[in-house]
Amino acid sequence: MNESEARRAELLRQTRKLYRNSQPIPPVHPRYGNFFKDSAKHDSPSGTNTFFLRLTVGILCFLCYAWMDYSDAEILNLTSNKITAQIEKPMNFINISEFLEIKK
């Protein structure tokens, strides 16, 4: 058995050993298995918590808009008609640059 065949046999043995675990098969080459295992330890479910926070903020914004529209309320010199007009207004780069120049 020459050197390349021995190396292939060793890689095959390592691959079989790696995939016999109860863990799911990583979608990476066995050579990079350590990187995959290290990154799996650092994964946290905190990313899912922000989804519910963003969903809650979005629902609250919609409810506030619906309340403003229903009761014709004006909050901070804003009405639902002004909000709708700003949403429908086409925005281009020239308007943004003019806005930024005014802010400076």
Explain this structure to me?
- The chain is mostly helical.
- Helices cover 70% and strands 0% of the residues.
- It contains 5 helices and no strands.
- It is elongated and about 85 Å long.
- The mean pLDDT is 75.
Mean pLDDT: 75
Quickly count the helices: 5
The tally of beta strands, per DSSP, is: 0
Rg to the nearest angstrom? Answer: 28 Å
Query: What is the distance, rounded to the nearest whole angstrom, between the alpha carbons of the first and last residues?
Result: 74 Å
Helix-residue proportion: over 70%
Low-confidence stretches: none
β-sheet strand percentage: under 5%
Observed structural traits:
single chain, mainly alpha, elongated
Show the helix and strand layout.
Layout: H1 3-19, H2 33-42, H3 46-71, H4 80-88, H5 93-103
Please sum up the structure shown.
The protein is mostly helical and 104 residues long. It is built from five helices and no strands. The termini are far apart.
